[in-house]
Design goal:
The chain is an alpha/beta fold and about 180 residues long. Helix content is about 35%, strand content about 20%. Helix 1 links the parallel strand 1 and strand 2. The two termini are about 25 Å apart.
Length: about 180
């Protein structure tokens, strides 16, 4: 059976950084679950993603805010390229010393390092307007992007479960 992990990442106490957790909450409310689909919100705890991926998944979708210089509220699908780290064993130990608070990029590097990074790998990213600390309310622009991003997430999930071969995952154009 194919298995897909969808993870909402972000600090719900920093305004638009809560995009990932809020989208996951909306998605759980609006869409039916599929066999083989796991949906979770991890906050800022990267170790939770690593621990779940150890259970054997063929795909991973991360939902997060991402500052990329676009107009606030812009939702994009990113296909991350995770390079091999050219580090000694001691340097790797120091680099990965604390994955509890690891950002998604460091989590992906860790998964690659332990050879469980899936070929089907996407980030649904939303450009934040505000990352103001101690603010639990999303900006209007990011809040308005949640519904469209939820539909987009559902489309990518359906593509995953409709693919026949695992080799197709690496070539999936979900943009």
């Amino acid at each position: 059976m194919k298995k897909l992990l969808v993870v909402g990442v972000g600090n719900v106490l920093n305004s638009d950084d809560a995009f990932g957790p809020r989208l996951i909450h909306q998605f759980k409310t609006d869409y039916n679950r599929k066999e083989g689909l796991t949906i979770m919100e991890t906050g800022i705890g990267g170790i939770n993603i690593i621990q779940e991926m150890l259970l054997g998944y063929n795909g991973l979708i991360i939902v997060d805010s991402y500052q990329g210089g676009k107009k606030p509220g812009t939702v994009r699908i990113l296909k991350p390229k995770v390079e091999n780290l050219d580090l000694s064993i001691d340097q790797k130990r120091d680099y990965f010393a604390d994955t509890h608070y690891a950002n998604p990029f460091r989590v992906l590097q860790f998964l690659k390092n332990i050879n469980i990074l899936p070929k089907f790998l996407f980030i649904i990213a939303c450009e934040p307007e505000s990352l103001k600390p101690h603010t639990i309310k999303l900006s209007h622009t990011v809040s308005n992007a949640i519904d469209d991003a939820t539909v987009l997430l559902n489309e990518i999930i359906n593509k995953f479960f409709n693919m026949r071969n695992i080799e197709d995952y690496a070539n999936c154009d979900c943009r």
